[in-house]
Design brief:
The protein starts with a helix and ends in a 13-residue tail after the last helix. It has 2 domains: about 160 residues, no CATH class; about 100 residues, no CATH class. By secondary structure, the protein is mainly α. It is built from 12 helices and no strands.
C-alpha cells in the first residue's frame, strides 16, 4: 500500500529534475557569455544538463526545463539572447536525446540535431537582421570587427613589441578578419556540431551507466556518408572560380566537410592503434603529434577521404555503417 509520502516524493523528483536541468544549462550558457576563459568551455557543455533531464525525466520534464532555462537567460540578459539559447542549446539539449531514445543511431542523431539547430540559428539571424534593418553579413562584419579591434588593443598594450612586430600582427589580424568574414557560416555550424558532439558523448556515458538502450556506436566506427565526397570534389573545384558568389559558399562547404573527414581519418587511426599491443601509448603519442605538428592534420584528412575506397578498417573488424 502506498504511503502519502510516495506521491510527494515522486513529484519532488520530477520538479528537481526540471529545475536542475534548467538551472545547469542556464548557468553554463550565462558563463559562456560573461566569463572570459572558463566560459569558452562552458558554452560547449550548456546543452548537457538538458540532455540529462530528457534521459532521466522524459519529454514531460525536458520541455519545461528548456522553457524555464530560456526564461532565465532572457531575464538575466535580453530576449534576443534567450532566443539564441533556445535555437542552439535548447534544441540540441532536447532533440539529441529525443532522437536517440526513438532508436536513431548516434551519428545520424548528431547530424540531424546539428542540421536543425543550424537552420533555426540561420532563420533567427535573418529575422533579427531584418528587425534591425541590416543584412546578416553586415551584422557579422560588425561583430568580427569589434572582436578584432579588442584583440588589437590588447596587443598594443603589450610591452616589448617593436613597431615592426606590431605591424606584422595587425596585418595578420586583418587577413584573419577577412577570412572570418567569408567562412563565419561554417564556423557557426562547426560550433553547433561541437556542442552536439559533447552532448552525444554525455548521452553515451549515461547509456553505459544507466543501461539505457541507446544506439551509439564507438567513435572509431564513425564514417562520413559516401555521397558527401562529390560535394567535397565540386566545392574544391569551385575555388578555381574568380566569382566570390561561387568561392565563398565553396569555402564554407569545404571547411565543414574537411572537419568531418578529419574525424573519419582520426577514427581510422584509432582503429589501427587498437589492433596493436600498446594502444594506450600509441594514442598518447598520436595526440601529442597532432598538437605539436599541425602539418599532420592534412594527412589525417586525406586518410579519412581515402578510407572511402581503401576501407582501412575492414580487414579485422566487420564493416559497420554508422549512418
Amino acid at each position: 500500500m502506498n504511503t502519502p509520502s510516495e506521491p510527494q516524493s515522486g513529484a519532488w523528483r520530477y520538479l528537481r529534475t526540471i529545475l536542475l536541468g534548467a538551472a545547469g544549462s542556464g548557468v553554463l550558457f550565462a558563463a559562456s557569455l560573461a566569463v572570459p576563459f572558463i566560459g569558452f568551455v562552458a558554452g560547449f557543455l550548456a546543452a548537457v544538463p538538458l540532455c540529462h533531464t530528457r534521459l532521466t525525466g522524459g519529454r514531460r520534464a525536458a520541455l519545461p526545463a528548456v522553457l524555464i532555462a530560456t526564461l532565465l537567460i532572457g531575464t538575466a540578459f535580453a530576449p534576443s539572447t534567450a532566443l539564441w539559447f533556445l535555437a542552439q542549446c535548447g534544441l540540441i539539449g532536447f532533440l539529441l536525446p529525443e532522437f536517440l531514445t526513438r532508436g536513431m543511431r548516434g551519428s545520424r542523431a548528431l547530424l540531424w540535431t546539428t542540421a536543425v539547430a543550424t537552420l533555426a540559428t540561420v532563420l533567427l539571424a535573418f529575422a533579427m537582421a531584418m528587425t534591425a534593418g541590416q543584412d546578416i553579413f553586415t551584422m557579422a562584419q560588425q561583430e568580427i570587427t569589434a572582436g578584432m579591434d579588442q584583440a588589437r588593443h590588447l596587443y598594443e598594450q603589450q610591452q616589448g613589441l617593436s613597431p615592426q612586430d606590431l605591424a606584422t600582427i595587425k596585418d595578420g589580424m586583418r587577413q584573419a578578419g577577412a577570412l572570418l568574414m567569408r567562412i563565419f557560416p561554417a564556423l557557426g555550424t562547426l560550433n553547433l556540431l561541437l556542442v552536439s558532439s559533447v552532448s552525444l558523448l554525455f548521452c553515451q556515458r549515461m547509456a553505459i551507466i544507466r543501461g539505457l538502450p541507446l544506439s551509439i556506436a564507438p567513435f572509431r566506427s564513425f564514417r562520413v556518408p559516401e555521397p558527401l565526397i562529390w560535394i567535397l570534389i565540386v566545392a574544391g573545384f569551385s575555388l578555381l572560380s574568380s566569382q566570390t558568389l561561387i568561392t565563398t559558399p565553396a569555402m564554407n562547404l569545404l571547411a565543414v566537410l574537411l572537419i568531418l573527414y578529419f574525424c573519419q581519418g582520426l577514427a581510422v587511426l584509432l582503429t589501427l592503434t587498437d589492433r596493436t599491443s600498446y594502444p594506450g601509448m600509441l594514442k598518447v603519442m598520436l595526440t601529442f603529434l597532432l598538437l605539436v605538428q599541425p602539418y599532420l592534420l592534412p594527412v589525417v584528412v586525406i586518410l579519412g577521404i581515402f578510407d572511402l575506397w581503401g576501407d582501412f578498417r575492414t580487414p579485422r573488424t566487420k564493416q559497420e555503417e554508422n549512418l
